[in-house]
Amino acid sequence: VAAGAALRVVPPELVERVQPVSLAFEQRLPVAESLHTLLPGGIQRGSTVAVSGTGATTVALTVLAAPSQADAWAAVVGDGSIGLCAAEEHGVVLHRLVVVDAGPSGGATWATAVAAVVDAFDLVLVELGTGPVSDRDARRLVARAKERGSVLVLVGAGWPGTADVELQVTGSAWEGLGQGDGALRHRRLAVQTGGRRGASRARVGELLVG
Amino acid sequence: VVTVWCPDWPVVIHRRPPEEPVAAVVANRIVACSPGARSFGVQRGQRRREAQGRCPGLVLVERDVAAEARSFEAVARALDGVCPRLELTRPGLCAFPARGPGRYFGGDEAVAAEIHRVVGAVLEGRGQCHVGVAEGTFAAGLAARAAPRGPAPTCVVPPGDTPAFLAPLAVTLLEMAELTDVLLRLGIATLGDLAALAAKDVLARFGTVGERAHRLARGEEHEPPATAVAPPELTVVAELDPPLERVDQAAFVGKRLADELLERLDHMGATCTSILVEAETEHGEYLARCWRHEGALSAGAVADRIRWQLDGWITPALGAAGLTAGLTAGPTGGLTRLAVRPDRIVAATGRQLGFWGERTEGTDRAIRAVARLQGLLGPGAVRVPERRGGRSPGERIVLVPAEGVELDRASIDGAGTALLGGPWPGALPAPAPARVALEPQPVEMLDAGAAMVTVSGRGVVSAPPATLVIGRRRLSVTAWAGPWPLDERWWDTLRRRRQARFQLLTDDGVARLCVIEAGRWWVTATYD
């Protein structure tokens, strides 16, 4: 009994020592307000987010926006067709954005280049769809991201396996465009979440952009 | 000084006959073209589509600076036989002092003939080299440009005649845009006008930049002649054990050496305008190359030059052009020693560092990663956004190679773009498309009667668009808006653009930005 009582009184210097080096909230990246219902609490550092469906690029840029405003560096691995004006409108800070052309996805130098990008950038948007990625490369990249605390945002098809968070755009509706009048103004995207970590509680949410 | 200039070098390396129309492009702009292409009216600075419009058979190649440097190494090695002390300004242009070779071969004309002989053997008729001889690198470069066309273009400016040679030339050739702009407005149009001014007045009015321009206009060297030899302790050396076999490994070492060299120079309050890169292999083969750079060299620029030099030496067989095929093969062993020596040291006068606080750790990491990726994928593979003016989404913000930009900048405005922010009447309102096609995709737009939709000169649509045909896919249009006419740069016959834009929503739920130009429909962007 005496030993148990002694254990309950933990000396303060020990409390300090066993405290985690980084707190849980420091390991999450913030998300834009429009994503709060879909991804409450932000995105875990080191996780993989796969976005698919019509409007995937828009959702991916929205994911990039909030961390980018919080001083994170972002990289886009792709051919450079990403809409930079759109990125800026969604709130991505462009002077902390780098676009890396690593050739077709799954190519010989592609995996090495993406690994180098993951090493240094907090957010890495990878455009897939120009070639299949091998299982081995995918596993290596996911492990690297986990180790470095970077978030991999995958856009398009061709990634083997399941991502930690999957955002599937199931519907897209534009407002403002008429028959020969108006202009594209707002857009409602119906998004369903899933994936390894979110699978137990899949959410369906709506994202209003523009 | 003798200058050897190979015109259209980015095109020449592709080993095509000169009469064939070939052009090298960077970011959809023509940067160099072959004489064949020029005869069709293709020029530097044109957009890719304009050039293709003028010459439909034009062969377009992406510019590859590394391949250019690699191929030029063959020319440099051939020139080593004429003069050992070669100074490379950039791929396609190099210079060396005229006095020694002039005495050896018996006159400047004899040197030029010898250069034409050895370089001609390397180029094998695929290109030409121009030789200019004058006092000072700047004047010699202009002399090479001014050389009359012919089988062996040469222009020798006799000693003492350099100021007279320069006098009638335009000040814009100085390539100091800000200064020459002012000079032109002051009525100083030629280098002779500038040289006629008193040096102290030019210095008082335009500072060190003006002084340098004045010096060049007078036909003197770029910088005052060095009075002191670079102290040996400034040389940075890396002994490599085990020997390096691959260029990218060596480039890493080179980057580190360059950083170290610049740090040492910084402590002295100095900078260098040319560097000597020495490489040695385990079998004692040795290659030294002097690189010159207008203005001060940054660490990235030094590392680039080291990579170019080693690329040309270690992997001659891999050169895209294969220009090196006829020459002696590369070294037989791995690299054991790499040294970088500053060659011409000048006081650091005018480089003001940014004023926006400390670099963060993330920025440092990003900068290092960018350098690594450039080594891995080649220069130009890493690009960063820069704001340019414009009315279409692909024009407003463009991607520029990261090596030309300081990455710890606080905004994406390029130099001198303060005016480009706007307003741009006629630009489309937000939201901007999330995907901008690199090359517009040709499509067909049909109305309800399956006839092509057209837009009249007054901006009236012939009929509402009903079907969008992309390749084999037929999509029916559910909503649309337009036309928004765009008539840009009507004063410029080459870059003029007249089109009408439409936003289009089709039954697959995708919104697209389409344009009609000269009766043809294109999809230029997708609102993904």
Topology:
The complex is a heterodimer of chains A (210) and B (528).
Chain A: H1 2-8, H2 12-18, E1 28-29, E2 43-44, E3 48-52, H3 56-69, E4 74-77, H4 84-90, E5 97-100, H5 110-120, E6 123-127, H6 135-148, E7 151-155, E8 165-177, E9 182-194, E10 204-209
Chain B: E1 2-5, H1 9-12, E2 22-26, E3 29-33, H2 35-38, H3 48-54, E4 59-62, H4 65-80, E5 87-90, E6 93-96, H5 99-105, H6 108-123, E7 130-133, H7 137-146, E8 154-156, H8 162-166, H9 177-185, H10 191-196, H11 199-217, E9 236-244, H12 247-268, E10 270-281, E11 286-292, H13 299-314, E12 335-347, H14 361-377, E13 382-387, H15 393-396, E14 397-401, E15 435-447, E16 465-470, E17 473-488, E18 497-506, E19 511-517, E20 520-527
Parallel strand pairs in B: 2-4, 5-11, 7-8
Antiparallel strand pairs in B: 1-6, 1-7, 2-3, 5-6, 9-12, 10-11, 10-12, 13-14, 15-16, 15-20, 16-17, 17-18, 18-19, 19-20
Which terms summarize this structure?
heterodimer, A: about 210 residues, alpha/beta, two-stranded antiparallel ribbon, 6 helices, 10 strands, B: about 525 residues
- Taken from the alpha-carbon principal axes, the silhouette of chain A is globular
The counted number of beta strands of chain A is 10
- Rounded to the nearest angstrom, the distance between the terminal CA atoms of chain A is 65 Å
Could you estimate the helical fraction of the residues of chain A in percent? 25-40%
Chain-averaged pLDDT of chain A: 84
Largest interface: A-B, 54 and 54 residues
How large is the share of residues in beta strands of chain A? 25-35%
| Strand residue percentage of chain B | 25-35%
CA-based gyration radius of chain A = 20 Å
What order do the strands of the largest sheet of chain B run in, or round the barrel if closed? 8-7-1-6-5-11-10-12-9
